Every structure is written in structure tokens, then in C-alpha cells.
């Protein structure tokens, strides 16, 4: 997110973008330079208005982000106060860093001093929760009676793969309560389609998500960070959605009668309010190329004839009638340059940047030239730092020549969907190109978000030969909010099949370390160890997300908890398989070993408080042993002691020999 509005004086208007704005061109001029200046000036005016409007939209999101950071800071300080008897930012100089870690003043809090192995029933790590005086009497009493259980206010069905979901949010339905339930259940990946709904509605949706994160964070006592990806408007032209009244009446289509007067508008306020009289289409840059008496096609049947042209709409009459559905393709005359970057794409890119969303999904893969043009537009709009994904319809990929191999190298990830078959039900058929595409994407360690709704509705069945492509390779599975209660077929099927093929897939993976530091081998060893000891969690302490991505690539069944101060990692790391990020940002400068120590005990406190890890459970800790390395290079398996893990970590993370231990004892 930008700290200050973008100044148009610093925005380079390239010839590429000038050509995109030909609809704004003035009457023919003999001087080409004057013509380019006129077009650039008009384009600056449009982009200036866009930046100003979207900057106002981003104010609420920025306020919530600051509130989240302040809350996370207070929660972190409170946690360390109970664990160490002081805040982690207190400066202590006792002559030796490891002496500080083993000092009774820094390790043993009052709770640990007064707690022995037999006092676990009394402590149970509830010191990190809210004041018991603020908890209702009934809830407090039952918590004391049923150890390690939680009283739920509403019945929630058991979901075996909650953290493998990517919940698609929409402004069409009210899902405030569902968002909070998803966050409480462990979901950390969400998706928003910017083509559906107005910008104000989508901004309200992002604000609701951030508010829910703050609310859940208060309940858990630890910060909550989720990754959000957005689908930008398609470059090709489509109609919008119907109004709320139509949806409430259960109407899915309206009939356009021959001779009827219709307004074709590009105003996004009507993007989800289409009626039989006003139809939205994402074609703002094409209006200037339309001429009177032109024909515009909607779908395969409907034909509109243009009667008059205005700034943001076309007045038409129906030349040939038909049934109008939501998101129908629209075909403009051949003179209209339909394949250039659309105004709606630029607007969506700016919106995503201003509200702090750095993962965008293109509607199609396109061609290398399509991607070049999109990247140039992102650079011009100051969005070149975003991660660019592409939407792929897997069972529509045809051929066996590897035509999508270039896309695997250039895109950062993929949203994989399935088209409905002509015959229902049918078996999912994949061409060699589709299989190769999934294999290469998985081998490249790039996230795959899979939309299984066609499989969940049992319109398609998966052949056992394609189990890896649907149940193993994807990182996340798309679900709607609110989720339909009619079936949970796919979730249960995926969970059962994944547990069966995961160990075999790991064993059959070739021992090939493509890294220069041995990181691939370490990641594989971590996942193998987690399966052998049945670890309840894998805790990764690091700065960058590289090791997390490598561990996630081998698809561990244990959840991965990534503890880092890297703010930008929150935007995308939770998209990877089974990853949850625990932000840890401090204002003070601390040494490497103390930094690792504090992050590890903070992660263990989170696991205990969330009841993910219980007494004597195995937890794998991955961290940097040597100072100066930018990636973790060591891991240990720790048998959790819920009441004494803080002093245990001081001895386990950085072991010392007997001479050093004697010196430390003398210092203490």
C-alpha cells in the first residue's frame, strides 16, 4: 500500500498507454506531437480522477491496518510478560547473550517458578487468555471442568481440511458472521472478484474482513493475518449481474423483446444492478470507437443497434430479442480494439494497490504478448510489485505440444477451474498438455488454487489416474461464502485421498536438490520427520518465505506456522499449502539468537493457546542456527512441555558444551 497518493507528474505516459486511449483523441491534427500531448493530457485527467477516488476508498483500510499492528504489539508484549516475567523489549546486559537466555530473570516467570509438573491442571496456559473476571460464569465453570475443550456458541460441523480452503467473498450476499467463523476455524486465504459488485461494495468487503481479523485476534490473544487475492475484470467484454430485486425474486434471466429501448452503460455503479432497461458492460475504452447504427451482439442471439452515443453509455434498441443472463459475452464492431488493456483492468489494479492487496488474478492466460502488455500497464500504474496469477480452465486445455509451458515460467501462480461437461455426470478428461501444465506448476513450487465446485456437485467424476492433479497438487480449494450446506462431498473425499497418497507421493519424489544451499533437502527432511513422529505442527522461523514454500511443496499433513516480521509476506504466504503466518514485529534491535528464541517461544505459546499442541506432542522447529544466513538451515524435534517450554528452548535451540555451560553458571 502506498503511503502517499501517486503524483501524476511522476507517472510516465508511455506511447503504449497513449495508444490505449485513442478513444479520447481530438480531431485530426497535422502535428503528431500536439496530438500525442493532447491524448496524454486526457489520459492524465482520467487516471488522476481514478487515483483520487480510489485513494479516498483506501482510508478506512489503512486505519484498520494500523489498528491491527497496534493490537498485535500489545498482544506480543502481554504474552512475553507472562512467559518471561518481562517484555521482550526490555534491555538486559548480563555479559553473555546465552546467559541472558538462561537467566532466571529472563526465563522463569512467576508462573513457571510456582508451577511444577503436577500443577499443569491449574496452569493450563490460561494466563495468556483474557481476564477470567470478564468471562461469563457458566463458560468459566465449564472450561474448568472439561479440560482442553471449548464451549461453542453455535454448532459447527467438523471440517478436516479447513486451512486448505480459499473462501471466495462476494458483496452480493451478507457473510459477516461466516467470515468470522472461517477465521476462527483456521482459514487464512480469501478471494474477491472485482468484476462483481461496485468498488464501494468491494471496499466494504475488504473492511469487513480486516475488522473480522481484529475481532478474532482479540478472542485468540494472537495476531491474525490472512492473504487475499483479487480477480480483475476480464479484458473481453461481458455484461454485469442483475439487481438485488431480481435475485430476491429468483430471476436468473430477463427477456429482451425486439424494438425495446435499452441503455448500454459503462458506469460501474450498475455492474450488479442490471435490468431489462439498463445493461452494464466493461467497455469504457470502446465507446469512442462505436458509431451510430452499429450492431452489438450479446451472447448468441441478442442484437442491439446503436441509436446515439454518449460519454458513458449507448442508447440502443433491440434488433433481435433473446434471454439475457448475467456475465454474457458482448461483441462490439470489428473497428473497436477489443484486445487492448481495458479501463476496468487499470481501475482494478489501482484499487487492489490502494487497499493493500498484492495478489491479482488475470481472467485468462492469454499469449506472451498479452502478458507483456499487462505487465507494462502494471508498471505504469505503479503495480509492478504485485504477484500476478492467471485463471486456467483445466479440462479445456487441448493439445500435446506444451503450449502453456511458457506461462508456468512467467506467472506467479494459477487459479484452476473446471468447465461443466456437455453430459452430466461425466468423467474428467485431461489432455497431455493439461497434465504437463499441472506437473510443471507443482514442480516450480508455484501455488495452485483449485475450484472444485463442479466436482462437489458431482457433475464430473475423477479417474484414479488423475488423483494427483485434483487431490494432491493444489495448495488451496475454492469455496463460496456462505458455503452451500447441501453437500460436503469433495472436502471429505479430498481429505481421505490426500492422506492415502501423501506418504507414497513423498517417497516417490526423486532426490533432486536444485538449490545451492541444500534447502530442498532440508525441507524434504523436515516433512519426512513430521510424518515419522506425527508432529502436530512445523514452526518455521525466518525472514523470507523461501523455506516455507519449499516445505509446503512436499505437502506435509502437519500445519506450517511461519513466524516472521516480514510485512509483505502476509499478502501471499498463506496461499501456500497448510501455511499460517504469525506476525512478529518489534521496534527494538535484538541479537540473532535472542530473536530466534523469542519467536520460537511465541510460536509455541500460540500452539498451546489454540490447543493445537498438547502435553508431550511433537513439534518440529526450523530456524537459523548461524547468524548472517538468510534462510533456516537447522531443525529439531521438540517434545512439548506446556509449562516449561521457555527454559527448554534456551537449552535446545543453541546447545553449548560443558566448558561454556560452567561459564554461564558462574555468570548466573
UniProtKB/TrEMBL annotation:
Known cofactor(s): K(+)
The EC number(s) this enzyme carries: 2.7.1.40
RNA-binding found in the keyword field: no
An annotated Gene Ontology molecular function: magnesium ion binding
Name of the encoding gene: Dyak\GE19784
Record-annotated Pyruvate kinase C-terminal domain positions: 520-628
Record-given protein name: Uncharacterized protein, isoform A
SUPFAM superfamilies assigned to the protein according to its UniProt record, in alphabetical order: PK beta-barrel domain-like, PK C-terminal domain-like
Keywords (A to Z) from UniProt: Magnesium, Metal-binding, Transferase
Residue stretches making up the Pyruvate kinase barrel domain: 173-365
